[in-house]
């Protein structure tokens, strides 16, 4: 049988190329991110969250959102990178 934490839908936080942040499919203002995450954390059995960031989002901005995830109660962060950012090998996309 599945463990209780495996039955929950994975929590996903998304940072779009223009810097907007969403929890699941709901856009959230940056100043509301930590309080919303804390509220969600109290309802969940696990601390796993997936951070999906567009490849064009600056690293520093991704780190700020990761910090908010930690403050919000989510310590187990999986990173998912979307394509579309700068190409590092010079071959283009």
The overall average pLDDT, rounded, is 85
Percentage of residues in strands = 25-35%
How many helix segments?
A: 2
State the helicity in percent bands.
25-40%
Radius of gyration: 14 Å
Distance between the termini: 43 Å
3D architecture notes:
The structure is a single chain. The chain is α/β, with parallel strands linked by helices. The chain contains two helices and five strands; from the N terminus they run E-E-E-H-E-H-E. It has helices spanning 30-43, 59-71, and strands at residues 11-15, 21-23, 26-28, 48-54, 76-82. The longest helix is centred in the middle third of the chain and has 14 residues, at 30-43. It is globular and about 30 Å long.
